[in-house]
Known about the structure:
The protein has helices at residues 2-15, 20-64, 92-101, and strands at 110-115, 139-149, 159-169. The protein is α+β, with helices and mostly antiparallel strands. It has a 3-stranded antiparallel β-sheet with strand order 1-2-3, covered by helices on one side.
Amino acid sequence: MNLHRMKRGFSKILCDESGGELVDFALCASVFAMLVLGTIDVCRAMYAYHIVTYGAQRATRYAIVRGATWPSSCSTSAPPNFTLNFGCKASANDVQNYVQSLGGFNSANLTVSTTWPGTTPNCSKNCSVCNTSNSKGCMVKVKVNYAFTFIVPFLKRGTVNLSANSQKMIQE
C-alpha cells in the first residue's frame, strides 16, 4: 500500500506544470538580453569605426594644407591641453595630436602613422620624386589604428583592430 501511494505521489509531481512559465520566461529573457546587448556593442564598434575613418580623413586634410611651404613645425602639446598653431607645417606628432583632439577615442588604444612618401600621386605610370617629402604636389598618407574592446562578456574577448587609411596630395 505504501508503494502504491509513493507511485501516485510521484506521478502527481511529474504531471505538475506549475512554474513552467517561469522557466520559459527565464530562457527567452536571457536570449533576448543577449541579443539586445550584443546589438548595442556591435553598434558601438560601428561608431568607433566611423570615428577612426573620420579621424584619418581629417588628419590627412590637416597635413595637406601644411606642407613644406609653411615656416616651421608646430609647437603643440598633447590633449587635453591641445592647442593648434595653424601657421606651421605638419609633422607626424602634430597629426597624431590633431587626431587625438577630435575626441571619441581612448588615446591609449589609438595609433596614428603619418608618412610622406616623397612622390607624386601618379607613381604607377609617371613617378616623379619631390624636392622634399612634403612638397606641394606630393602625397601624404595617414593610417589610424584603434584597438576596440567589446564590453559584453559573451562576445569575442580581447580587442578588435579598427583601421582606416587616407592619402591625398599636398596643396600648400
